Amino acid sequence: MELRTASSPKDVKHYTTQRLREEFLIPRLFFADEIKLVYSHIDRIITGGVMPVKKAVALTAGEELRAAHFLERREMGIINIGGTGKILADGREYTVGHKEGMYLGMGIQDITFSSTDCENPAKFYLNSAPAHTSYPTVLIRPQGEPEEGVVIVKEENKVELGSLEDSNHRTICKYILPGQVESCQLVMGMTSLEPGSVWNTMPCHTHDRRMEVYLYFEMPEDAFVMHYMGEPEETRHIVVRNEQAVISPSWSIHSGSGSRNYTFIWGMVGENQDFDDMDAVANQELM
User: Fold this and answer.
1) Which of 157, 181, 148, 169 is nearest to 76 (CA)?
2) Most CB atoms closer than 10 Å: which of 151, 203, 268, 269?
3) Looking at the DSSP assignment, which residues form a beta bridge with residue 170?
4) For binding Zn(2+), which residues are annotated in this chain's numbering (predicted)?
């Protein structure tokens, strides 16, 4: 498990491009038949990727967590951005399709990931946060019919925002949040930009009560996103390519503009789960 420490905004003002990337960019998350995990001291979030190809892959705590099992004191959200896969959680098997997700509550001990087709493997993207109580483990589908152990994203949690004129026509699909999938502190979802739109989270904002991680994907090899971060009056940027993630501290804006449309998964961890609790930054204030 790779460890990342927290950074002061006073220090970040003096970072070079390379230092910014070392501190905040996760350049690769998906390795065949392996689990890649990055532990950030910022709100103790763990960001990871699992791509089982030829065999099932088990999630273990590792020495870094000093725990008997990974979710002994944690919860986890998962969204699959690859082919159909399976997650085995304490003996119960869930089939997780493309862009379907899962919430695994604190206390789940045995977690194994696998793919149904090695030619089109699953790519399980995960965010994990410290937890103080256990909530039900559920499979999350953006659409479909409800069934036991399955939560369908509510229509009010599919929000269309922006416009083509402002180059930010996008749809936000909220997976894990109060009132739909309960958690201790993790909030998670996906935003898809329409063709012709490239801007996300603009006008931008900060939220001191929680940090955020973005995973950008559905981009061709020659495409990229300029991810903007930093204090509103001291902005910085990081070039992000397909299936790369960025860690965003609570004091930082988090916005991006791509060379074409793309999709990203956002995960938030902190003391507040209110999606609308944010401090807006007017475009005129950015520097």
Assistant:
1) 181
2) 269
3) 161, 193
4) 205, 207, 212, 254
Q: Which helix (H) or strand (E) holds 62?
A: helix 62-65
Q: What single-letter DSSP state applies at residue 32?
A: B
- Residue ranges for the binding site for Zn(2+)? 205, 207, 212, 254
Fold of 2-143+153-285: Jelly Rolls (2.60.120)
**Which residues belong to the annotated binding site?**
205, 207, 212, 254
Helix (H) / strand (E) containing 266: strand 263-270
- Phi and psi based region of residue 238 (left: phi greater than 0; alpha: psi -120 to 50; beta: remaining): beta
Look at the alpha carbons of 232, 258, 211, 158 in this order and tell me if their dihedral is positive or negative.
Answer: positive
Contact criterion met (CB below 8 Å) for 180 and 168: no
Give the pair of three-digit tokens for residue 160: 């269309």
- Evaluate if residue 81 carries a pLDDT over 90: yes
Centre a 10 Å sphere on the Cβ of residue 142 and count the other Cβ atoms it contains. 17
- Specify the amino acid at residue 169: H
| Tokens, residue 72 | 């002994």
* pLDDT tens digits along 175-234: 999 999 999 999 999 999 999 999 999 889 999 999 999 999 999 999 999 999 999 999
pLDDT given for residue 65 in this prediction:
94
Q: Say which amino acid occupies 51.
A: M
Helix%, strand%, coil% for the chain, nearest 5? 10, 45, 50
Q: Rounded distance, CA 257 to CA 69, Å?
A: 39
Question: For residue 151, what are its two tokens?
Answer: 């939560």
79 and 188 Cβ atoms separated by less than 8 Å: yes
Nearest to 212 by CA among 166, 250, 161: 250
Q: Summarize pLDDT for 253-275 with one digit per residue, the tens.
A: 999 999 999 999 999 999 988 88
pLDDT in tens, 144-182: 988 889 999 999 999 999 999 999 999 999 999 999 999
